[in-house]
Amino acid sequence: MGLLSAVARGRPRAGQPSPAAHPSTATARIGPVNLGRVAWLLTVLACLVAVLILLLEGYYGYAGVTFAVALSAAINLV
Fold first, then answer.
1. What pLDDT digit, counting tens, does each position of 29-74 carry?
2. Closest listed residue to residue 4, CA positions, set 60, 66, 13, 59
3. In this predicted model, what pLDDT tens digit does every residue of 2-30 receive, in sequence order?
4. Which long-range CB contacts under 8 A does 75-78 form with residues at least 24 apart?
5. Is the pTM of this model over 0.70?
6. DSSP annotation of 74
7. Which of 12, 37, 38, 61, CA to CA, is 20 to 30 A from 75?
């Protein structure tokens, strides 16, 4: 086995400490969420719940249209 195959499997090279030897001190920070983004997310979720209910009740056409609305709203989240 060559050094390249050992590195490819995620093993540290000789003389280098393993990543677990030095734990990260960085903390995760979640930035502020735009209110408009929250509104679009809630719209998508509401549409998906409506799609599920419509499918369970047998309204396949309405479920398809509502799913299209959910996809259209989801574009605003990208």
1. 877 878 999 999 999 999 999 999 999 999 999 999 999 999 999 9
2. 13
3. 555 544 555 556 666 665 666 667 777 87
4. 76/37, 76/40, 77/37, 77/40, 77/41, 77/44
5. no
6. H
7. 61
| Domain locations in the chain as residue ranges | 33-78
Asked whether residue 1 carries a pLDDT value surpassing 60, the answer given is: no
Cα distance between residue 20 and residue 6, in whole Å:
17
Neighbouring C-beta atoms of residue 51, cutoff 10 Å: 20
Cα 45 to Cα 20, 28, 67, 73, 76: the distances in Å are: 39, 26, 10, 10, 13
- Say what the pLDDT of residue 5 is: 53
Q: CA dist 46 to 20, 34, 38, 60, 61, Å?
A: 43, 19, 12, 17, 17
